[in-house]
Amino acid sequence: xxxxxxxxxxxxxxxxxxxxxxxxxxxxxxxxxxxxxxxxxxxxxxxxxxxxxxxxxxxxxxxxxxxxxxxxxxxxxxxxxxxxxxxxxxxxxxxxxxxxxxxxxxxxxxxxxxxxxxxxxxxxxxxxxxxxxxxxxxxxxxxxxxxxxxxxxxxxxxxxxxxxxxxxxxxxxxxxxxxxxxxxxxxx
Amino acid sequence: xxxxxxxxxxxxxxxxxxxxxxxxxxxxxxxxxxxxxxxxxxxxxxxxxxxxxxxxxxxxxxxxxxxxxxxxxxxxxxxxxxxxxxxxxxxxxxxxxxxxxxxxxxxxxxxxxxxxxxxxxxxxxxxxxxxxxxxxxxxxxxxxxxxxxxxxxxxxxxxxxxxxxxxxxxxxxxxxxxxxxxxxxxxxxxxxxxxxxxxxxxxxxxxxxxxxxxxxxxxxxxxxxxxxxxxxxxxxxxxxxxxxxxxxxxxxxxxxxxxxxxxxxxxxxxxxxxxxxxxxxxxxxxxxxxxxxxxxxxxxxxxxxxxxxx
Lengths: 188, 310
What we know:
The complex is a heterodimer of chains A (188) and B (310). The longest helix of chain A has 25 residues, at 95-119. Chain A is built from 10 helices and 3 strands; from the N terminus they run αααααααβααββα.
């Protein structure tokens, strides 16, 4: 999932938001609404998605079932119903939103993986499968690929803790300048 | 409603002398955003701390001030930024006043609820809160005080009873959504209290202590809290146990130093700003007159000529 792709979608989102404000009272095209809704889901901005759904006119909602399908994914995300999320995002999407929704499923999967790593010292294979939207056997395979221990008999998976990110280093001169500022401030 | 947002945004930017100035249009923009359910445009103004109020030749009214902070608080609450929402409601509620204002009353009700969600109790208001609040507004918020009292008892079942009892009031005030979030936050608070007593706990035990339906539901809550960083724990599904940890942050990493740096810079800036404002007031002729008028009481003849010299 390229970072540049995420950035592009973010820019697209800002553009559509701006256009929506310019349109004012007249409704936007269904394509704009679908794309913006999907982008909010990608950014995990569930509140933004909820309010967007509330302000889309009823007529557009009724004549565009795809919009309702995108919102269904959003609803599942709100409820943290992982099985539901993956199922809802499996539909056939139009070209406008296909890329975005694929990215949504991917980001959800990554986030779920991170959470499982953080939160579980051991997790049942079935539950793990639900989290990442794969069948139990595929899930076990994926876990083994990551290097996690798998207890085949009880189907328990033991996630490995993530290494903490290396710290950012600061330049020494910068540090000195900052410290001089503080001393200056405190003497006054 | 949506039609007005863009023109108002431009209007505010045109009228403001600097971005930290509050105008009477700010409240209108927030209201429009809430009505049209498009909250983002207001955020760019809400996120800046206000340091000055535009005079607009006596047309700026207390109502505009109160409404800005009330609507602002509502916008932050809708976006689940409870920290800033509480701050905004607190400002609305601690405005110096002699008369009772409905806006203040509604702001106080929401203040109670958000305070419960965020801190688990009604946080104490600063000393400069107006007396009217104590005398008139609090008695009018009885159902909310009931909720707050039951909340501090830490019993979810009791809280549900109280909420059911006052449902009509909450629905009428449009605060039912917030009240429901209070019930969820009480469950979370109870789980957090368990970390103080236990090192490991079984999920079934936790469900019983916190009055949840079963271990699966307890697991869901703990997982949610771990994701939101409200708790530090690991779930062991094999044994159905949860192990609580201390905050792994030791505050000794370069990242933490950078964070501290940022906070200190903010404090320094704030200090400079306050000095500026203090200086401005000190040379304001009205202030000088008042403060020196007190000293010059026994020299009536020379006082007025002395003021002229300034």
